[in-house]
Amino acid sequence: MKGLFAVALGVLTAIGGFLDIGDLVTSSVVGSRFGLSLAWVVVVGVVGICLFAQMSGRVAAASGRATFEIIRERLGPRAGAANLIASFLINLMTLTAEVGGIALSLQLASSVAPGAWIPVAAFGVWLVIWRVKYDLMENVTGMLGLALVVFAVAVFLLHPDWSSLATQALTSPVPAGESAGTYWYYAVALFGSAMTPYEVFFFSSGAVEEKWTLKDLAQSRLNVLVGFPLGGLLTLALAACAALVLMPQNVEVTSLSQVLLPIAQAGGKLAVAFAIVGFVAATFGAALETGLSTGYTLAQFFGWSWGKFRRPTRAARFHLTIMIGLVIAMGVLATGVDPVQVTEYSVVFSAIALPLTYLPILIVANDPEYMGEHVNGRITNVVGMVYLVIILVAAIAAIPLMIATGAGA
Amino acid sequence: MTDEGERLPRPEYRGRVLDAALHLLDRQVQDVHGEPVQTADDLEIGDVPVGESLEGAERPRILAILNGTALSTRVVGGRPPSSTLERIPWRHVADVGTAIRLTIEADDVDATWRERWVRDHIIRRIPGGRHDPE
Amino acid sequence: MRTWAAAVVALLLAAALAGCSGVRQGSASSLDQAGSAVRTARLAVELDARGRSTHPVTATALDDALTKASQAQSGIAALGASTRVNRRIRDEAARAIDDAVRLLADARDAVDAGRAPAADWDRVEAELARATVATGEAP
């Protein structure tokens, strides 16, 4: 019974923890402009994140080494440092977006301007990282994040024409009024938001934090293989809500408040309340994950002591890095920049950084010295290589597409 | 090992063959309790005679694991002044696996002075810093 | 020498043409942006009136819509039009967007004060639509 509870808890947390501000914004923007015609990208992205999250967890459990230690060791100091700088900056950008997202979500609950919420949000994130145990933090934000299931319910309440939704998703047409350039630009953005590198840093470091052994791998695989696809379904539900309510009215999503309007239409005030709880939990959870990831990447590259399982005095530079990261995020947001825009850029830059993260994991997962008998199987390797090609194409295409389309305008 | 490894001359002693670049450089260094200390930024190797026959010369030995400015010179090139290097003498190394394990505690390693400084001057002074998370 | 001159002329022409389409495209996208903001606000207000949405959500949605419309307003103000036709297109677009911003500001103030906004959405939307058509039609 207890075992069943643990399994359910793990899966539910994975669903709730899957979404962050990047998914909320990107899938709604895409839904309002392209309907479900980019649904295939979510599918491709979810399979990819399952594959590599599971792989990095296995590497961490088998070798005790987290992702960035491996990146440094396999790529050497030069490529490793370049990778560190890129990953660190993108992670910082994502952290900024998430903290801004908490503030925007709290504005939707209170109508107090987000500027006032930003310091509160950043302080809250720091306090939880400073004092709250790892698994408690994960479980609470994950479970509350499940409130976003309301988007899936809303799709049903909106009584859509299912066959036309399915046709849209399966034939993937470029809608009238959009160019092929913007279509592919948003395909890259959506892919980047599904496969954000911080999820892998976080997942592998989390495996070390929770002291996974090879025995725990079955549970982790289940969490990933069931939780992430269901999380991906929620992403599609977000897109579908925007496609059903906002797209016909020719409303283009540019703010978080617009994401709520289909929910209000479908389910009224109660549904809105659920959605706001889900927003706060998803952004807060992701702010914790990205905040920790700023510490993880730097500490693992330089070999510092890190982790929440240690008391802060035993991982001093790790905690200092996180504090500085949060202060920078607050500083950026204090300039009045729109967090939604930061989010839109962060998912595209994430797509650019993907090969830097995923190639070393694939290499090490094949190294018997690290993995013993748990090296990748043949099928995993084939799929991994296919994904590496996809990731590479997306990364190379991202910047030209961004310039050509004026960032999707 | 790789094919190249098999072509190496058979060592005259029993034990594992370690490739310095592959197994030592950029590897995590842990103290006797498994606490992370640093990454092996570079290695200090004993003198090799220059300009004379190597016949009969002593085999070069690894003297220390380096830290500090050693990393920057490996990234941008050049040669750091020897005085700015932070060393962990090789005699403190207990074992080399997926991490390099030491026989001493992290606090006894000179190279961890930054960690100790941050801990004593910042982290320790913030309430809750000395307690386990709850 | 001649090819150089030809190339320079071609480049200048291209730039002039781009400037032309720049005003039209700029006007059209600013109108799009303002139109999307107005329709968002309208939807938010209607949902609120039907009791399906909460006050903070409506207020935030109106605030965000106003911000977007104001951005469209400053976007169109930054367009430099060199020909008479372009100036006419731009000015008509700017007038419609100004109207939209005014409407959104009034609506937001009303919601902030706890009143139902008495906004003439149809008129402003029609104006924006008319201006949008003009950006595509003019010779």
Summarize this structure as a short list of keywords or feature phrases.
heterotrimer, A: 409 residues, mainly alpha, Amino acid/polyamine transporter I, 81% helix, globular, C: 139 residues
- The N- to C-terminal Cα distance of chain B equals 45 Å
**How many domain modules of chain B?**
1
CATH domain topology of chain B: SH3 type barrels
Radius of gyration of chain B: 18 Å
**Side-by-side strand order of the widest sheet of chain B:** 2-1-7-6
Enumerate how many helices of chain B there are, as a single number: 4
Portion of residues in helices of chain C? over 70%
Our measurement of the CA-to-CA distance between the termini of chain C, rounded to an integer number of angstroms, reads 35 Å
- What composes the largest sheet of chain C? none
**Average predicted local confidence, pLDDT of chain B:** 79
| DSSP, total strands of chain C | 0
Q: Give the strand content of chain C.
A: under 5%
Structural class of chain C: mainly alpha
Approximate shape of chain B: elongated
Radius of gyration of chain C: 19 Å
Query: Which CATH first-tier class of chain B would you pick?
Result: Mainly Beta
Largest two-chain interface: A-B, 35 and 34 residues
- Average pLDDT level of chain C: 81
Secondary structure tally, helices of chain C: 4
Instruction: Please indicate the count of domains of chain C.
Output: 1
N-to-C order of helices and strands of chain B: HHEEEEHEEEH
Word description of this protein:
- The complex is a heterotrimer of chains A (409), B (134) and C (139).
- Chain A has 409 residues and is mainly α.
- The longest helix of chain A is centred in the last third of the chain and has 47 residues.
- The mean pLDDT of chain A is 88.
- In chain B, 19% of the residues lie in helices and 22% in strands.
- In chain B, the strands form 2 sheets. A 4-stranded mixed β-sheet of chain B has the order 2-1-7-6, with no helix packed on it. In chain B, strands 3-4-5 form a 3-stranded antiparallel β-sheet, covered by helices on one side.
- In chain B, a hairpin with a 3-residue loop joins strand 6 and strand 7.
- Chain B is elongated.
- Chain B starts with a helix and ends in a 13-residue tail after the last helix.
- The relative contact order of chain B is 0.16.
- Chain C is built from 4 helices and no strands.
- The longest helix of chain C is centred in the N-terminal third of the chain and has 48 residues.
- Chain C is elongated.
- Chain C starts with a helix and ends with a helix.
